[in-house]
Amino acid sequence: MLKNKKFAFFDMDGTLIDSVGIWNQIDQKLIEKLANKTIDETTVQNDRDTQLKKFNAQPNPYLCYCQYLKDKYSAQISAEEIIKLRYEIAQDFLQNIIDYKPQADLVIKKLKAKNFTLAITTTTKRTNMDIYRTLNKNINAKAPLDEYFDLIYTREDVSKIKPDPEVYQKAMQKFNAKPEECIIFEDSLIGIEAAKKAGIETIAIYDKYSDTDTEAIKAQADFYLHNYTELLSSIDEL
């Protein structure tokens, strides 16, 4: 699956790091503050995924999502204030709780040792990525992003988010890479769809928060792994 590949592009949330569930917890706390209600995790995630997909062509899909929360829960503050509150709630999670998925840091190190060019191609906001890069204690203790990745593209670097392939097209252009030289790691269906539209082979990494799309992911991805441990021997054989 990695033979003749030179470039590896990684999604961030749910792929490299265990964070999708964290964002559910963050949004649960946010809704509690807005409406004094406790909403189950599944509803929180489904609402967020639906709204972000709906507004993926907007300049700031997360602001649209916060407007949706304001309307749904009759919040007394503006969407701009809600997104600021969400960011404040997220700080402790981003700095101290979020961590690499098991063996993801080892995969990064092994690929780098095999002279792969590595990139992060995510729809995560740059402010969050900057925290992961500089303040997250778990990530920096294991494999600091700036040390191993040659390029980091975030939400602000593209006009359209996944499933639009723009972020992958820009990464290929940056490296003057051909699709057949690249491999993409993704956990979500929209990420796999974006990769396929860019004409790049994909390795789907299992994430429990994508369970509802598992069969579609398996059908569209070129390879499907339950965890990063399954990849280690393939790297060693290169």
TrEMBL record:
EC number in record: 3.1.3.-
Ribosomal protein listed as a keyword: no
InterPro entries named among the record's database cross-references: HAD-like_sf, HAD-SF_hydro_IA, HAD_2, HAD_sf, PGP-like_dom2
Gene Ontology terms, MF aspect: phosphatase activity
Top-level EC class: hydrolase
CDD domains reported in the protein's UniProt record: HAD_BPGM-like
Keywords tagged on the record: Hydrolase
The UniProt record lists the keyword ATP-binding: no
Gene3D superfamilies: HAD superfamily/HAD-like, Putative phosphatase, domain 2
SUPFAM superfamilies per the UniProt record, alphabetical: HAD-like
Transmembrane regions listed in the UniProt entry: none
Name of protein: Phosphorylated carbohydrates phosphatase TM_1254
Organism: Megamonas hypermegale
